[in-house]
Write a structure and sequence with these properties.
kinase; binds adenosine-5'-diphosphate; disordered N terminus; coiled coil; Heat Shock Protein 90; Sig_transdc_His_kinase_DctB; about 600 residues; about 20% strand; transferase
Length: about 600
């Protein structure tokens, strides 16, 4: 029971361990799948963001580079220089305006205009338009200030007159060894690039170095800041009218990730974006490409869901397998239990049948012995009658001493008869097999007493040779007596056929067993009978003489006492029956000592 409880506990323990292990492996698989898919999706998205960024910055660069030379070229134009040096015979203002208008058309720029060194515009390509620059002063513009210092002025701004976003290139015009004559400015349209990229359906931002958005895929992002801007800077920008009167507020619902290096997404107006950034140093711009972060999370989530389903299916399969196995185990157990109980029932029935058979065999043996027993009892009875008759005559004749002697004889004879009947009573009692330490000598003596009447009717002589050290055996005393009576009775029957019949009964120790041997000098056992000797109802004796149960019962009883019964023919002649029985532990100790 304890062993079984331990086994069950062990099995339960291993089941829990297995479940824990499985959950751990499943969790590992799901986490690994999630991270590896999200890593590769992230890498892919980064790659495509980089590509977009390269294309966007290249197209911006190209748009600017295309026109950066134009003011330098125009500044060299003698036509313009002559005009500025007030050589009216050379060219009129109208002619210059038309000239600039034509160049503007050919170059595909927004505007081209000419300013005096004080910033006043004196000629412009848009001379004919309502919002013409002519007469306006742009001295406040940084590009003008740069150009007047002799450098190429580059500037991005929203046109104060046109309200259009543009990039300005300006250059100083001066004749050799003379003070500045003027500044020529070319305004380039970059909104075209914006509308092209808008059609590409990707989100992007282009900011100036202060973080103010001036190109974007969404109109609502324009002229918003993505970096903190101090009030002082805001004021300074307002002064140069770069972004006119736009309030330059922070971009709404925008958040940088806490650690940019960790490739975390940014948050912008309800969505996460992967952000790729590149600087355009010449223009002083920052270009950002924003790709939907769901391109990373969606495949990772799908892969994780698939991995979870796979793990669930596997666990379901394992559970079904385990349940099936448990069911089979239970079924096997039930079958085994049913079988065991059936075997137990059959064994009980067999034991009962065997007990009945043993008893029957005993009664049969008694029946066979009854003639001899009758003789054994009738003899003393006759003697008793004779002694009693004599005693009454001696009493009449007045010989009381002889009467006493006869009565003593009678008493002795009754004692002998009582011994025989007592023994028969003991022999006929039923036993259901109570194996204990028994005195071997008691069994030998009892058996001898039972067969003695039979022996006395023959000329067979019984010899015995006992190992007197052997005192205790493990046996059922009644069963052992019965085996000995059977063996001795058979031996007497066999030896009686000889003129000088002999039976030998001996005991000896063999290891931790005792061997009891019954040998006779009868005809021995015929070879063809040898295999059937211990079969029930095998007999070679005449009808009424034998039932053929003695040896088969004895064989069974010996087995039940953990012993063995065997038969062989003696080399000289006759049969030898050997009964091996375990020695009692007490006897073994005595022997060993
Ligand atoms: P039964 O004595 O009623 O025949 P047993 O089972 O005791 O039944 O014996 C079975 C048979 O074994 C006997 O009929 C006999 O042929 C043979 N047998 C038993 N003991 C001896 C013996 N000592 N010598 C020769 N044959 C024997």
């Amino acid at each position: 029971m304890i062993g079984f409880a331990f086994f069950t506990k062990k099995r339960q323990l291993s089941k829990t361990t297995l479940l824990g292990l499985f959950l751990l492996v499943a969790a590992l698989v799901i986490v690994t799948v999630y991270f590896s898919v999200s890593y590769s999706a992230h890498t892919r998205l980064q790659e495509s963001a980089k590509n977009y960024l390269t294309r966007l910055t290249s197209s911006l660069d190209a748009a600017l580079a295309r026109h950066s030379y134009l003011p330098i070229l125009l500044a060299q134009e003698p036509f313009i220089q002559d005009f500025l040096q007030k050589k009216p015979e050379a060219i009129s203002t109208e002619q210059l305006n038309l000239y600039l208008e034509r160049i503007n058309q050919i170059a595909g720029t927004l505007d081209i205009y000419l300013m005096l060194p004080n910033g006043d515009t004196i000629a412009a390509s848009n001379w004919s338009k309502e919002q013409s620059f002519i007469g306006r002063n742009f001295a406040f513009r940084p590009y003008f200030q740069k150009a007047i210092q002799g450098e190429l002025g580059r500037y991005y701004a929203v046109g104060t007159t046109s309200n259009e976003r543009g990039y300005y290139f300006s250059y100083l015009i001066n004749a050799q060894d003379q003070p500045a004559l003027g500044v020529i400015t070319v305004k380039v349209n970059i909104a075209e690039i914006e509308s092209f990229w808008k059609s590409q359906r990707i989100d992007f931002l282009v900011t100036d170095s202060e973080g103010i958005v001036f190109l974007a895929s969404q109109d609502s992002w324009l002229f918003k800041t993505i970096k903190p801007l101090t009030e002082l800077r805001r004021q300074a920008i307002r002064e140069v009218k770069r972004y006119l009167d736009y309030p330059l507020e922070p971009l709404a619902d925008f958040q940088w990730p806490p650690y940019l290096e960790a490739d975390q997404p940014i948050w912008l107006q309800g969505k996460h974006y992967l952000l790729a950034e590149r600087s355009m140093e010449e223009a002083g711009w920052e270009v950002y490409v924003l790709l939907d972060w769901q391109e990373v999370t969606r495949p990772a989530a799908v892969a994780m869901i698939l991995a979870t389903i796979l793990c669930l299916l596997t666990s379901l399969l394992l559970l079904l397998l385990w349940k099936n196995q448990a069911q089979r185990r239970r079924y096997k157990q039930a079958v085994l239990e049913a079988l065991e109980s059936k075997v137990e029932e059959r064994t009980r029935e067999l034991r009962l049948a065997q007990e009945e058979l043993v008893q029957a065999a005993k009664m049969a043996a008694l029946g066979q012995l009854s003639a001899a027993i009758n003789h054994e009892l009738n003899n003393p009875l006759g003697a008793i009658r004779a002694y009693a008759d004599n005693a009454s005559q001696f009493l009449e004749r007045g010989h009381p001493e002889l009467v006493k002697a006869n009565l003593q004889e009678i008493s002795g004879l009754t004692e002998r008869m009582a011994t025989i009947t007592r023994q028969l009573k003991i022999f006929s009692r039923k036993s259901s097999g109570c194996i204990s330490d028994c005195r071997l000598q008691v069994a030998l003596d009892s058996a001898f007493l039972i067969v003695r009447p039979k022996l006395s009717q023959t000329t067979v002589s019984l010899h015995h040779h006992y190992d007197t050290h052997l005192q205790w055996v493990r046996a059922d005393l009644v069963w052992l007596e019965q085996i000995l009576v059977n063996l001795l009775s058979n031996a007497i029957d066999a030896a009686a056929e000889q003129a000088k019949g002999q039976v030998w009964l001996s005991t000896e120790r063999v290891g931790n067993k005792v061997r009891i041997q019954v040998r006779d000098n009868g005809p021995g056992i015929q070879a063809q009978n040898m295999p059937h000797l211990f079969e029930p109802f095998f007999t070679t004796k005449a009808l009424g003489k034998g039932l053929g149960l003695g040896l088969s019962i004895s064989y069974r009883l010996a087995k039940d006492m953990q012993g063995e019964l065997s038969a062989e023919n003696a080399p000289e002649a006759g049969a030898i029956f050997s009964l091996l029985l375990p020695l009692a532990e007490t006897s073994m100790e005595t022997e060993d000592d």
